[in-house]
Amino acid sequence: MGQPLRIGIVGVGAISGQYLSTFERLGTLGSGAVRLVAVADLDADRAAAVAAEQGVRALTVDELVTDPEVDAVLNLTIPAAHAEVALKAIAAGKDVYGEKPLAATTDDARAIVEAARAAGVRVGCAPDTVLGTGVQTARKAIDDGLVGTPVAATATMVTPGHERWHPNPDFYYQPGGGPLLDMGPYYVTALVTLLGPVESVVGSASRARATRTIGSGPREGDQVPVDVDTHVTGVLRHESGALSTLVISFDAVATRASCIEVHGDQGSLVVPDPNGFDGTVELHRLGGTWEDLPVSAGYRDAGRGYGLADLAATPPGATARANGDLAYHVLDVMTSLLTAVEKGTSVSVASACERPAAVPLSDAPRI
Ligand SMILES: NC(=O)c1ccc[n+]([C@@H]2O[C@H](COP(=O)([O-])OP(=O)(O)OC[C@H]3O[C@@H](n4cnc5c(N)ncnc54)[C@H](O)[C@@H]3O)[C@@H](O)[C@H]2O)c1
After folding, report:
1. What pLDDT digit, counting tens, does each position of 107-126 carry?
2. Which residue has the least CA distance to atom 40 on ligand 1?
3. What's the CA-to-centroid distance between 77 and ligand 1, angstroms?
4. What's the mean pLDDT in 19-28?
């Protein structure tokens, strides 16, 4: 049996709790893939509190990335800091795995992927929700031919806006935010997992209001300026020829549309929420009726952090599933769609990636 990948977390804010509970769960399952050894945060008190709770060391960011006991840096900082932290870790010869998006811009994201390649270290990135039983069972159904030849997909995410619950929602309405960059990583990563990479995009978008009203917290009632489109629609042409229609909105109250549907000449598939790990996959065969498919692939009861454990368990020479090339392609697809909206034309997606390997039905990545 190999040694666990020793993890140092940079950024122990809101989402870090989910990773910490995943590490605990992986320990209970005897996965052996990862072991937390240190944490760091700009807020030293926050880092110290988490370190004490976890029984690990609290370090500064510079200490953590160069620490000889840290093999991989888990980057859970805010998107604007993703590149800075990742590049520091890569320069110190560490693997990096980060929250989505890979970086705030495609230039920064490319710098991460290229620096890692030059340094011979690995890059991984959320979302790893697509490694759960929901999207993986749907993928297996497609790979097993249950829908015949896939021709199209739809992906729909609507909400009336995060300012209703988020006390400081300003960044959602500034460049780098917006519904596409915020929620798109889940949907586009799922579409690439199901149907392969995207070669071109067209789109159109709108914004319903010039300001949004904060609905909770000390700033309740304050107006937030809107500098991005808040209803984004697009068509992604996959290399396979399949077309995915995307609707991602902060301007709609509710929907009864499936999060994702995939259509082929022999069947249609309902895919569960790609912002979760599980859920029921439904199939309608040609001439049949809707039926629930049994869970047949993916990590059971997975949580945030399984993508990092999967990377740790990936043998040398093989490519981890939630890898940097995939995350870069997903960011490139989204930014190309925003360019297509701005220009009013079709835009080619410059990057490509391999469709990540399927996940056989299992409890956890193991080394
Ligand atoms: N909160 C969620 O529900 C959620 C869900 C999915 C994904 N994410 C992603 O997780 C990431 C973090 O989100 P969050 O909600 O935990 O944010 P957060 O603001 O709660 O936490 C971020 C933490 O990183 C620290 N930090 C920021 N810059 C740093 C730097 N340069 N060096 C060291 N520490 C730094 C902050 O002090 C803070 O403790 C984002 O990429 C976000 O997209 C969040």
Report:
1. 999 999 999 999 999 999 99
2. 78
3. 4
4. 97
Whether the full predicted model's pTM is greater than 0.85, yes or no, is yes
**Regarding beta strands 347-348 and 72-75, do their DSSP bridges make them parallel or antiparallel, or are they unpaired?**
unpaired
Token output for 240: 């396979």
Atom 10 in ligand 1: residue holding the nearest Cα? 99
d(CA 57, CA 211): 44
Quickly state the pLDDT bin for 1 (edges 50, 70, 90). low
Q: How far apart are the CA of 174 and the centre of ligand 1, in A?
A: 17
d(CA 231, CA 224): 17
Bond from prior residue into 101 cis (ω within 30 degrees of 0): yes
| Model confidence pLDDT, tens digit, residues 170-182 | 989 998 889 999 9
Omega cis (within 30) before 160: no
Determine contact, residues 159/338, Cβ cutoff 8 Å.
Answer: no
Buried (b) or exposed (e) across 6-45, using 16+ Cβ within 10 A?
A: bbbbbbbeeebeebbebbebbbebebbbbbbbbbbbeeee
Nearest-angstrom CA–CA distance, 3 and 288: 50
Q: Are 135 and 298 in contact (CB under 8 A)?
A: yes
What distance, in Å, lies between the first and last C-alpha atoms of the chain? 6
Centre of ligand 1 from the C-alpha of residue 163, in Å: 18
